[in-house]
Prior knowledge:
The chain is mostly beta strands. The chain has 1 helix and 16 strands. It has one domain: Jelly Rolls (Sandwich). It comes from Rhizoctonia solani 123E.
Amino acid sequence: MAKLVLAATFFxxxxxVGAKPIDTPVEPPSDADKSGxxxxxxWDSQQIPKGGHQYTxxxxxxxxxxxxxxxxxxxxxxxxxxxxxxxSWKTQYNWQGxxxxxxxxxxxxxxxxxxxxxxxxxxxxxxxxxxxxxxxNPLTADVSYDLWLSRDPKSAPSSSSxxxxxxxxxxxxxxxxAGSQITTIKxxxxxxxxxxxxxxxxxxxxxxxxxxxxxYHADLLHFLDVLRTLPKNGVDLREQYLVALQAGTExxxxxxxxxxxxxxxxxx
Length: 268
C-alpha cells in the first residue's frame, strides 16, 4: 500500500563473480510448465498452472494512474514446476514522477489453501530466490510479502473489510513503509525493523529486513505470532482469517528488471 519515502535507506550488496565455463543447457523437468503470456495491462493476470489454480500472477498497476506519473511495466511467468509447486517470473518496469508513491505491485498470489482462520494454521513455509538483473541508480522500490487478514473469510484484500495487513520486506531500496517504526525485533533468527501505520480501514505492520535477503527460507506464521507478544501496539490475529498471501515488488521511482528464480509457499 502507499508509503512515504524515508531518508534512511538500505543499499544492495554487490559481489564479484569470476569467469566460469559455459554450462551445458539443462532441460526443465517433464512436469514443468513453460507457457506464459506477457502481462502488460493494468489488471492483467494469469492462473498458474494452466488448468489448475495454485497461484495467480498479477501485473497490478494499482498506483500508476495518478496525474504526473509516467512509465510502464510488464510481468511474465518463466517456469512452473508442478512437483515442487515452484514458480519463477520476472517483472520489468520504468516509472517516473510522484517519487513518494507506489506505482504497482506485480505479485504472485497463493490460491490453494487460503482463507483459513489463523488459529487453524500450523505453518506457512516459504522459499524465495530473487535478484535484480538490472536497476537504475537511484532506485526506489521494495521486494515484499503481503499478508491480508479479515474477520470475514470472504473478504477481498485491500477492501473495507480488511482489518490487518502484514508486510515482510526482504529488500528496501530508498523506500519506507507506512507509519513509523515502533521497535526492532528478531523473527526467525533475523533482525527486523517493525513499522506500524494506518491505511484505509486497516492497520499495516511492516517487518523490514536490516539486510537484503535474496535467498529466503522461513515460516511466515512466525510474523503473525510475534505481533501477539508485543508489549505495545500488538494484535492477536488468531481469530482472524488469512484471506490473501502475495509476494512481489512495489516500485516507487526508477527502472529495474527483477527476476524470481524460485518461489514456493504453502499454508498448512
